[in-house]
Design goal:
- Two copies of one chain form a homodimer.
- By secondary structure, chain A is α+β, with helices and mostly antiparallel strands.
- Chain A has two domains: about 60 residues, Arc Repressor Mutant, subunit A (Orthogonal Bundle), CATH 1.10.10.10; about 160 residues, 2-Layer Sandwich (Beta-Lactamase).
- In chain A, about 45% of the residues lie in helices and about 20% in strands.
- Chain A is built from seven helices and eight strands.
- Chain A has a six-stranded antiparallel sheet with strand order 5-4-3-8-7-6, sandwiched between helices. Chain A has a two-stranded antiparallel ribbon with strand order 1-2.
- In chain A, helix 1 packs across helix 3, helix 4 crosses helix 7 and helix 5 crosses helix 6.
- The first copy, chain A, is elongated, with a radius of gyration of 21 Å.
- Chains A and B meet through helix 1, helix 3 and helix 4 of A and helix 1, helix 3 and helix 4 of B.
- Chain A binds a DNA duplex through helix 3.
DNA sequence: GCACGCTGTGCCGTGTGATGGCACGGAGGT
DNA sequence: ACCTCCGTGCCATCACACGGCACAGCGTGC
């Protein structure tokens, strides 16, 4: 079903560069204009895109995607929000809610710190399992080998045995660390939220590396562990 | 491109009833199993759905939809969140962020009150323009006639002239009211966020009808108007 | 144990409809 | 007046989506 693949590619491209027209899309995707236009027509008919502003030749995506996304992770999100708010209040730092997906964790929701120097990640971003606090929190409970261990910074754990030891430490401690392993100036602690069949999500406290000395890290670790446990219980 | 329409219908149905298998989908959509399965295969290939849990015969949607939704309204959402938080802190009530889309407003984000009796609407829900505070706030600035004025409760404005007068009042006051016009026990005030070409969003304070007597309504109205103005300015 | 309902999967002849090259009209720009 | 970009529409060709059907696996119950 090549045309479905094409239409979905068109949809993604529209989302990424809206508002955008037929010609530019065709050039960007390497598809004939006719094909792109037929896709646009169909997507419009299906209610996924609409003409942007007054112009009928530029397109943008509708809230259809939001309605799809809503029904997915949103029960989790609703349960997590109060817990995340309390956690931010106690730490004063940015809180992330992520879920495992394939060989990565995906950012579902975040609450930012008030402080001027802060971590800002876009919703939907994918972080590596072995080089993020949330990823390691999840990985520790997945009990399966990670894929290839890409190095991002000098502290990224790229040795499988070292990673295994690290994950054992995560299980013993209850929370996972990130010491500049994905971006050298970002520190975090994270704890997994467990469902019946393994980890379903993960909560984290993320700060600039300069704001997480060891004593604070231990305290944040305790708080995030407790928050994850609260969320786990509230999910039944 | 009927197959694209079919595939998108399959995607929506998967999102709505996940985890779900081929047979049930086919029955629900009134499509042959073969067609549904081909769609599932294609959607999986495109990364929009994945097998649920360990089973390879049940499907669920991935975070692809979230990534699409993210790039759409999310600049707005990011700018709005701090304003919404302050507004909730000042009112102690539920705050909604909605955007106009077609003949409705769509709920993009919300912050709930702490109080046990509260309004809870799902993200993505569509409310009528003429029978919701957010809708009327937007409609007042759109300066175009609304569609058919469906009645929802005894107080819903169904007369075009009455609606026009109401909207003039909204422009004069700066904020729109809802006095049980969509659901009889819900009250709200809302103010539009303006872009270069008209309203791009709307903020509201929503409470049970019993918690918004006239003096409080006026106060909330002032606060929501101010918040909307702040957001308008921060969007440049 | 056999029959039956259900699941998901695979095959294949038919003919629909997607493809993509091309031409046209319009809007700016030079 | 030219040239270039835009979006749109047309149409012959043939790939491939369609959907009926058959089959394998599984659990249930006479």
């Amino acid at each position: 079903m090549q045309n479905v693949i094409n239409a979905l590619r068109v949809l993604e491209e529209v989302a990424a560069r809206q508002p955008i027209g037929v010609g530019e899309l065709a050039r960007e995707l390497g598809l004939p204009k006719s094909t792109v236009q037929r896709s646009l027509r169909t997507l419009n008919e299906a209610g996924w895109i609409r003409p942007a502003g007054g112009e009928v030749t530029r397109w943008q995506v509708t809230s259809k995607a939001l309605q799809i996304a809503r029904t997915t992770e949103l029960g989790l999100r609703d349960a997590a929000m109060p817990v995340m708010e309390e956690l931010r209040q106690r730490t004063g730092e940015t809180i992330h809610l992520m879920v495992p997906e394939g060989d990565a964790v995906v950012l579902i929701e975040r609450l930012e710190t008030d402080k001027p120097l802060r971590i800002v990640l876009p919703l939907g971003i994918r972080l590596p399992l072995h080089a993020s606090a949330n990823g390691k929190a999840v990985l520790a409970h997945l009990r399966r080998p990670a894929g290839t261990l890409l190095g991002y910074t000098g502290t990224t754990i790229t040795d499988p045995d070292a990673l295994r030891a690290e994950l054992d430490g995560v299980l013993a401690r209850g929370y996972a660390d990130n010491r500049g392993e994905w971006r050298s100036d970002i520190a975090a602690v994270a704890a997994a939220v467990l469902g019946p069949d393994g980890p379903v999500a993960s909560l984290s406290v993320s700060t600039p590396a300069s704001r997480m000395p060891e004593p604070l890290r231990a305290e944040y670790g305790k708080l995030v562990t407790q928050a994850a446990r609260t969320l786990t219980e509230s999910l039944g």
